[in-house]
């Protein structure tokens, strides 16, 4: 499961741009992940410029080619 | 009130330079236009290095002195071992103040009759028989749904409008740069000079920039390729290390982060009732990451196609494809070239960059023609010739 660190996000939407299943929603000052849709591919974790997102409990084993 | 209007000709989602340019040109062409911006302000936060060429900006607007933080006529490339190569730019460039620039572009659109609304977040499309016919969302907490003949996704690197309409806008990891920038003061910089640090140790798969905004102030930022970001070191860590090394005395006035699409343009830019412009269309130059000029160009070309389509036959995919054709005709081939150069630069490591820099630096500045620089580089890294030949052969 992807965890969002508290009070860290700048709401830039980098993660939304790479999410292959469109499970992240970023508003003006709000970020949400739909964990039912998320496939734990971790691309959002890699591209986040300021380490807001982290993988804490990988249930799915999808890998997405870079 | 915009919420009560039954239908617009166009709804533009996103109030950056691409969206505002679309809105201005479409309104000028007689269309009713509603522009929805999710943030509180047009032009804020500024997720951009703010560099633009004089020729680029003049294609669309006359530069207003209020927008220009500095004028640049010289470039310095800095290799991993700090070897410096300086040269004059063929044409001058600027560092913009996009807070003012974006604001004015939206005003130009409003002056032509477009309606601009901020704090309006779009969360879905209304789709009827496979045609996109409107958007849903919230405005300061209140829900709205509004119809339009054409919906324009100008919603940036995080674009979802295109996806909802079935257009393939998802970026591969190697086609996005993870970016961060600090506007800092209390430093000394050369006011007329762009600094580019090209090295894997400082910004793998991208570059680090110092763009002066006066003698004591600069945008200092970097982008690292998503491909290298996999290694677990974020852009912020790279930038903090650089600032500590080169500008430990800097005070930070603003920090912004964001993704930069360094991809081929989205293959399908239009569908029935839908168009994509700017970063949402991956219009951004994939080599430099510069997105203002290509964004405005895409907005302009898309608006011209929209006006034409709505005056002749309606917003069908086929009619809107005029935009795809003009985009590829005007900038498409260069875009593909820049993409291929980006792909070949990935393969170079810091030893390659240093070796090339030493060879190039040994040529006296007044005889640094592009051809001489190129042949010096190729002598040091012969495989470059294949990459560059491929780029220009278009394979």
Characterization of this structure:
- The complex is a heterodimer of chains A (66) and B (395).
- Chain A is an alpha+beta fold.
- Chain A is 15% helix and 21% strand.
- In chain A, the strands form two sheets. Chain A has a two-stranded antiparallel sheet with strand order 1-4. A two-stranded antiparallel sheet of chain A has the order 2-3.
- The relative contact order of chain A is 0.33.
- Chain A contains two helices and four strands, in the order βαββαβ.
- Chain A is globular, with a radius of gyration of 11 Å.
- Chain B has 395 residues and is of the alpha/beta class.
- Chain B has three domains: 188 residues, 3-Layer(bba) Sandwich (FAD/NAD(P)-binding domain), CATH 3.50.50.60; 106 residues, D-Amino Acid Oxidase, subunit A, domain 2 (D-Amino Acid Oxidase, Chain A, domain 2, 2-Layer Sandwich); 50 residues, no CATH class.
- Chain B is built from eleven helices and 16 strands.
- In chain B, the strands form two sheets. In chain B, strands 1, 2, 6, 7, 8, 9, 15 and 16 form an eight-stranded mixed sheet that branches. Chain B has an eight-stranded mixed sheet with strand order 3-5-4-11-12-13-10-14.
- Chain B is globular, with a radius of gyration of 22 Å.
- The chains are: A alpha+beta (66), B alpha/beta (395).
Q: Tell me the domain tally of chain A.
A: 1
**What is the CATH domain class of chain A?**
Alpha Beta
Shape of chain B: globular
Strand order of the largest sheet of chain A: 1-4
Give the N-to-C terminal Cα separation of chain A: 20 Å
Strand content of chain B: 25-35%
Along the chain, the helix and strand elements of chain A come as EHEEHE
User: What is the fold-level CATH name, i.e. the topology of chain A?
Assistant: Alpha-Beta Plaits
Give the fraction of residues assigned to helices of chain B.
Answer: 25-40%
How many DSSP E strands of chain A?
4
Question: What oligomeric state best describes the polypeptide chains here?
Answer: heterodimer
Envelope shape of chain A? globular
CATH architecture level-2 label of chain A: 2-Layer Sandwich
Spans of at least 5 consecutive residues with low confidence of chain A: none
Number of strands of chain B: 16
CATH architecture of the largest domain in chain B: 3-Layer(bba) Sandwich
């Amino acid at each position: 499961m992807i965890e969002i660190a508290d009070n860290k996000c700048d709401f830039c939407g980098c993660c939304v741009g790479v999410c292959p299943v469109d499970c992240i929603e970023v508003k003006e000052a709000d970020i949400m992940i739909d964990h039912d849709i998320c496939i734990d591919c971790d691309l959002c974790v890699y591209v986040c410029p300021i380490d807001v997102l982290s993988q804490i409990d990988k249930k799915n084993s999808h890998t997405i080619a870079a | 009130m915009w919420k009560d209007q039954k239908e617009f000709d166009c709804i533009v989602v996103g109030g950056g330079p691409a969206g505002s340019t679309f809105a201005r040109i479409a309104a000028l062409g007689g269309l009713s236009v509603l522009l929805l911006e999710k943030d509180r302000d047009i032009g804020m936060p500024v997720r951009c290095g703010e560099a633009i060429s004089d020729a680029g900006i003049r294609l669309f607007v006359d530069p207003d002195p209020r927008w220009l933080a500095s004028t640049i006529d010289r470039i310095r490339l800095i290799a991993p071992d700090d070897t410096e190569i300086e040269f004059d730019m063929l044409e001058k460039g600027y560092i913009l103040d996009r807070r003012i620039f974006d604001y004015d572009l939206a005003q130009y659109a409003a002056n032509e009759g477009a309606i601009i609304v901020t704090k309006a977040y779009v969360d879905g499309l209304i789709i009827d028989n496979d045609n996109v016919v409107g958007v849903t969302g919230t405005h300061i907490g209140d829900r709205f749904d509004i119809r339009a003949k054409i919906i324009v996704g100008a919603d940036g690197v995080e674009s979802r409008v295109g996806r909802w309409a079935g257009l393939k806008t998802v970026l591969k990891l190697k086609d996005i740069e993870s970016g961060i920038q600090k506007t800092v003061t209390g430093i000394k910089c050369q006011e007329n000079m762009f600094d580019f640090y090209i090295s894997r140790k400082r910004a793998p798969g991208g570059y680090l920039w110092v763009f002066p905004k006066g003698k004591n102030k600069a945008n200092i930022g970097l982008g690292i390729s998503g491909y290298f970001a996999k290694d677990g070191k974020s852009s912020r860590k790279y930038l903090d290390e650089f600032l500590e090394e080169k500008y430990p005395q800097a005070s930070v006035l603003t920090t912004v982060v964001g993704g930069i699409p360094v991809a081929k343009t989205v293959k399908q830019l239009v569908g029935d009732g839908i168009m994509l412009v700017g970063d949402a269309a991956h219009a951004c130059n994939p080599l430099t990451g510069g997105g203002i000029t290509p964004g405005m160009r895409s907005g302009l070309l898309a608006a011209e196609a929209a006006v034409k389509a709505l005056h002749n036959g309606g917003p069908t995919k086929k009619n809107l494809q005029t935009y795809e054709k003009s985009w590829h005709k005007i900038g498409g081939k260069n875009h593909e070239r820049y993409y291929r150069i980006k792909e070949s630069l990935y393969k170079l490591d810091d030893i390659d960059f240093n070796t090339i820099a030493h060879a190039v630096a040994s040529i006296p500045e007044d005889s640094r023609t592009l051809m001489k620089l190129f042949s010096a580089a190729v002598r040091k890294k012969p495989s470059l010739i294949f990459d560059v030949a491929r780029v220009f052969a278009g394979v």
